TrEMBL record:
Residues of the NIPSNAP domain: 3-99
Organism: Mucilaginibacter xinganensis
InterPro entries xref list: Dimeric_a/b-barrel, NIPSNAP
Gene3D superfamilies attached to this UniProt entry: 3.30.70.100
Domain of life, source organism: Bacteria
SUPFAM superfamilies noted in UniProt: Dimeric alpha+beta barrel (SSF54909)
Name of the molecule in the record: NIPSNAP family containing protein
Pfam families documented for this protein: NIPSNAP (PF07978)
Length: 101
């Protein structure tokens, strides 16, 4: 299965930093917790320029909430977000996607 994650940040500069700095680290560490990063994008139009959008894959039978919680409590996540003000993430939206085929 896949999960679409949409992170809305305080402004487009913060989104650019989160996309460039933090997601480069997440790409390395998420696979250690069973996630596969399929892609990460930054909004490219005025209405979504402050959003970072990621497509994450995981096994069909996985407990995504448990996997996510394990990662969020890990030293790897602490390192990934060191120096970043997480309060600048104003919203996180997640959607579980299943293939139609």
């Amino acid at each position: 299965m896949e999960q679409l994650r949409i992170y809305t940040l305080a402004d487009k500069e913060t989104a650019a930093h989160y996309f460039t700095v933090n997601w480069s680290k997440h790409r390395i560490n998420l696979p250690r917790f069973g996630f596969e990063v399929k892609g990460v994008w930054i909004g490219n139009t005025p209405g979504i320029a402050n959003q970072v959008i990621a497509l994450i894959s995981f096994p069909d039978n996985a407990d995504v909430e448990r996997m996510t919680e394990r990662y969020l409590k890990s030293p790897e996540f602490a390192n990934d977000t060191a120096g970043f003000d997480r309060n600048k993430i104003t919203n996180v939206e997640t959607k579980i996607l299943r293939s139609a085929g």
